[in-house]
Amino acid sequence: MSSVQDDEPAMNLSHSTTEYGSILLGSRRDSSERRRGRVQLLLTLWVLTANAVGVGVVILLGTVGIPNPDVFAPEVHDIVFGYLPIYVVVAFVVGAALGTAVVMRMLRWASDTDPAPTRQEARSAFRAPWVLAAM
After folding, report:
1. What is the distance between the alpha carbons of residues 119 and 92, in angstroms, rounded to a whole number?
2. pTM higher than 0.70, yes or no?
3. What residue ranges do the domains of the chain occupy?
4. CB within 8 A of 114, min separation 6: which ones?
5. Which own/partner pairs from 86-91 qualify as long-range (CB within 8 Å, at least 24 positions apart)?
6. CA-closest candidate to residue 82, choices 71, 69, 67, 93
7. Measured between alpha carbons, how far is residue 88 from residues 45, 48, 72, 92, 123 in Å?
């Protein structure tokens, strides 16, 4: 004897899972604008995260890994606490804007109404991480 009656509809879980295997990747039924926005958001977040890790590594190397010259010396105070933070902020903004623009151009097919890429578009998509790394 079963607690679920045979005439009851089965539980529909299609809204909680997607065809691409992750809620971050969305669904094939999403509009091209929504798909483009999702790709752009994920791409920008990855670029900013990679830049933040890079900044952290450089700070650790400059303060702990390479002890000489001393980055806290009074002679370089203006550079370390003035110009360097400005440079980091500008690098984040320019890197995120330029990286997102270049790769979004490479992934233009993702925002088309037909999400299937051509052979050239697929190659371009696989080259995108290398293009970002080269920047």
Report:
1. 33
2. no
3. 32-134
4. none
5. 88/55, 91/51
6. 71
7. 16, 11, 18, 6, 32
